[in-house]
Amino acid sequence: MQLSSQSIMKHKPTDTSRRNFLKTATLGSLALVGSTSLLSTLAGCGEDNPTSPRTGERVEVNLNENGFEALREVGGILRRNFGSNRNRGKDVIIRRTAQTEFRAVSVVCPHAQCDIGTPNQNSVTCPCHQSMFSMQAGNFGARLSGPAPRGLDSFETAFNAETQILTITF
Ligand code: FES
After folding, report:
1. How high is the pLDDT of residue 114?
2. Which of 85, 106, 107, 113 could form a disulfide with 91 if both were Cys (CB 3.0 to 4.6 A apart)?
3. How many structural domains comprise the chain?
4. Nearest to 130 by CA among 151, 116, 113, 149
């Protein structure tokens, strides 16, 4: 079946994009001044220390299948495990933020790697030291309070409205 490019909506994690931009800009500036020691120090920060390592592995889920009912409506949230090779076997929380847009984040708290609790429409709390993260569409996964150094790790999503297949890249 031919699919129009407009029917496939992709979402790349904004935190990662921002980090990549900042890292690129910072590394470029440092290269100009030749400060190699500072360069290696900064290279060890941020995305290089993820709680949820990137594997590039993709999972496709058909939202018409049983178990994905929560994601058929905008605003729906689903907590799901996709196996040992994805997110180190830890759960993922997915939210449908618009008709063709989804967000996916890891349940692994970036503070001390506890699993966060059960999300509601607005937020989710880590039971270990009470870091709180947003579950709202505009800043899904962002840190709201507590000792966590950043928001929850997010994964790229893409949705095909014709086939109703959601792809998550780990
Ligand atoms: S491990 Fe989550 S707040 Fe400490």
Report:
1. 98
2. 107
3. 1
4. 116
**How confident is the model over 7-56, as pLDDT tens digits?**
567 777 655 444 444 444 444 443 333 333 333 333 333 445 678 878 88
- Ligand 1 center–CA 108 separation, angstroms: 9
What is the rounded distance in angstroms from the CA atom of residue 170 to the CA atom of residue 165?
16
Kindly state whether residue 1 falls inside one of the protein's structural domains.
no
Residues of the chain with pLDDT under 70: 1-8, 13-49
Angle of CA points 66, 137, 78, to nearest 5°? 20
- How much distance in Å is there from the Cα of 94 to the middle of ligand 1? 20
Domain holding 55, by residue range, is 7-169
Residue 45: which CATH number? 2.102.10.10
- The answer to whether the CB of 169 is under 6 A from ligand 1 is no
